[in-house]
Amino acid sequence: MKRTSLLQDLAFNSFAFDEGDIRRCLPGSFEKGRSYHRGGAVRDLRADKGGQRLIASVRGTRPRPYHVFVEIDDSDPVVISGRCSCPVGWNCKHAAAVLLEALRNPPAVERAEQNLLDGAVGGWLYQLRQAVQPPASPEAIAYRLDWAMAPGSPFVIDLRVVRILKSGEWGADRALPAQQLQNATANYLTPADRGIVRLLGGGSWSSRLQLPEDPEIADLAMRRILATGRCKWQNLASPPLVLGLGRPGRLSWQVGADGRQTVGVALDDPSAVVLPSASPWYVLPAEHLAGPVELDLARPLVRIALSAPPVTKSQAEAVGAALERELPGLGLPRPRSDIVEEIRKDPPVPILTLVQRNRGWNYWGVRTKEWDDNVDLALLGFSYGGIAVDPDDRRNELRTFEEGRIVVRRRNRGAERGARKRLQELGLRAVETFEAQNRDEDRIAFGFAEGQRAWPNFVYDVVPQLEREGWRIEFEDGFRHRVVDGAGEWTAELEEDSGWWFSLDLGIVVEGERVALLPVLSSLLARLRDRDAPSELDALAHNGTVFGRLEDGRHVALPLERTKAIMATLVELYDPKNLSTAGKLGVSAGEMTGLAALEAATRLRWLGGERLRELAERLSSFSGIAEIEPPSGLLTELRPYQREGLNWLQFLRAYELGGILADDMGLGKTVQALAHFLVERREGRLDRPCLVVCPTSVVPNWLAEAARLAPELRVLSLHGPDRAERFPEIDNVDLVVTTYALLSRDADHLLPVQWHMAVLDEAQAIKNAAAKATQVVCRFDARHRLCLTGTPMENHLGELWSQFAFLMPGLLGDAKRFARVFRTPIEKKQDGERRSVLSGRLKPFLLRRTKSLVAADLPPKTEILRPLELAGPQRDLYETVRVAMHEKVRREVAEKGLARSHIVVLDALLKLRQVCCDPRLVKLTAARRVSASAKLEHLMEMLPPLIEEGRQLLLFSQFTSMLDLIKPGLGEAGIDFVELRGDTKDRASPVAQFQKGKVPLFLISLKAGGTGLNLTAADTVIHYDPWWNPAVEDQATDRAHRIGQDKPVFVYKLVAQGTVEERMLELQQRKKALAAGIYDAAGGTGAGLEAGDIERLFEPLG
After folding, report:
1. Rounded CA gap, 445 and 478, in Å?
2. CB distance 607 to 493 below 8 Å
3. Residue 241's CB: how many other CB atoms inside 10 A?
4. Residue 667 maps to a domain
5. Are 313 and 337 a contacting pair, CB within 8 Å?
6. Which of 259, 510, 965, 975 is the one with CA 20 to 30 A from 378?
């Protein structure tokens, strides 16, 4: 006989028919065949073709047996063809007997081989088959063995359809009603599965089936289920069960929750679970084994013993006596008669399990705004002292047998209704499910009408709230909306590529692992209706949080404002073509202002890219631009603003950047450009000619100005009909002047030249990007490019784009993207945010001074330092706080290092500064007993004489609470004042009153009024408490010392002598980066602060 391999037998040894098929195909022979089968007439039964052909001998009425061959076609419905050597010949009683014998006693070869596959060997062979022959279908049937492990509770086999992932692991699952298998044609249905379901009685509309009452069929079904390798105990996430060897067992009495006792089977191994079935089987969950229980009793006797009716407590004594008297050999002990009952009042604990289910047949009642094959649900259940219960379970009491007694827990229906109402208050709605209607889903299912969008916020905000309320929240593996916190450390990493190109990588630390942030933000941009309006993130956010999606499917909760700040910059920087597969964004040097905005607006820890970040910082603030000595060959003296213009031009040249010098007409753009050329010549960089392109009418002015102011320059004019004769001279001069009108005609001569610099005067001439002249200038081969124009934009933003397409291609993206990101929002929607972003983007590359701005120099500014000595209780308090804070800082730095201790350092320094200002600011018990303030006393002494002199004063303090302490003294002294702080809604009125001279004193909080105010009526500025960053103080002072000021300005700085304030001023002078290092705590860096600085700041009073 031809045999298949062991692996094939393991996969295909189930029969595709059941008793119903035999009755249907052999209706006239079935009953006679049953008699033959019961009489043991079937001999030598064999099977081949994977169980689709049976061969046997059947003893009949004559001496010689009949030979029977039965073919089984597993089509739907099954077709049976039985040939026999008897006179009937086809589908006779002998064929029916063979079929019944095959169901009751599978062929001997199958049983012998199956024993070889017990235990670990079977599991290994299954795993080997899965690796060699992965399932052709992306889905498979799983068999979940489910039992509550309580006497009287049913043992069921739960049919599930699971998705097979590429990794071979199981994904989402759904219930599979057995009835569906009758007509189903899905690829995942194998002959083995069909045969198993027939053995289990496949006509049920439920997915939860029970073993047959016939012990032999039950035993066969269990063996075939285990042979699939897809049988799990309780949880589909656990490893599959494999067939173990038979283990000896014994009959025992098992006490039910109602106190009645039934006969069951027990094993010596306490970890074994014995399944309540006609054929006893055990499960060892920890070892993932299942096997038959062997009892030293005949099967009929076991069946009768296990079918014993429940024995009540009153019957226990009599039943025990009868067993000992009449059946001493049965081995069944006496039932217990000492059972007591205990009533407990355990409060219900709501259990919410978040799951994913296939919408399909089971969850037809789920209605959401979006359609998805899968649906996310919250299943509600309750636990009373660890006993789970369905909300719709009608029992008012839960009875269990625990530690020798019956425990009765009474349901709290009011609390359960309250839990359901709580979910409804949170926006969840109970959904109808097919399973729930058939009582196959243990818990009520809830969902959101909004669909998937509502779940991340629920998990992030609501789940912790429910847990605080005492709920237990569980997540199934397939649930799609797990949320991780993204509010931790954010990093930005720059890697320098060739030239001035960099790779920008943003990352966040999620559960201890760094993940790429740019792909998350990119997907958020794609979800916006207007991808270029980050303000629309508000619509996606909830409670200040917006949810992005990580590559592994988890949601990450991002702080809204921080994310908006980054995305506002990404709108400028982001180009999908520049995002690598590793989640890094290509950034050019021309886009560094966006990088500076990103660094300024967010608290990122930066890694690398120091050169680019330094340039970005300089461009955004113009700090660090070197002073350039005007060239001696320039025969005129540059005005201060013209020298600044020269510095700026040289700065751009040094970093290979282009720009627009956009000064008002008459302010000397030409002379600044000539000075620029001369500096290049002086420094030996002018080894190629410079080209100036200008309108025809301006050519004479360029030639005359060059001859008058820069006679050292060798100038060539390519204008006029004879210009062709001068083309050969280009390489021998310093400066070539031509016109826009001639560009297209002379392109063949100009384009091959390698220019040192290409300068477009009256550059608005190339405002049309499609014009021939524009196309020619964009093709120039020049190291540096510059535009000169007093009107860089005359009609629309496209004119600016055209000029920057010449200066730094790519800075503003292509024309289509620029129109989408900037032109349309600004010109058609009056989007102030986009206008501000564009202005910031162009500011470093566009220098514009008006005549009114540079018409006159400002009057002088005098700074006066007023050192004040702390005395008495205030001095003692300072020392007390200093000692305590110094020790705290030392411990923190020793434990975490200086870089990660900035919060503690800043808090300690803040308290010392507050003591210097006024002890009442310090929220410490020791400070409550101190009311004297040296600073406040001095302030109240200096204000009256200054006001009597007619001074107009600005008084700045970082602390609004300090301003509150100052105001009572002003009232006592009869000094009128106005005030501006963060919560001031009407800013215009106090400014107007002060500017008109109606009050002599303006109290201003540094944060609220340090910028954006024009207070030129003031001639005196008092800084009550020094700020760590001197630039912030300077900005505040500039509220008075600015264009329009016609009086000298006096600046007083009140400093507590010998304290942290004085030492901070010393450190500012000694180490310029210190202030930024301390104050930039919000950015998570203390790069400017060293251990020696800490010790100096916390030194005792001098």
Report:
1. 16
2. yes
3. 26
4. yes
5. yes
6. 510
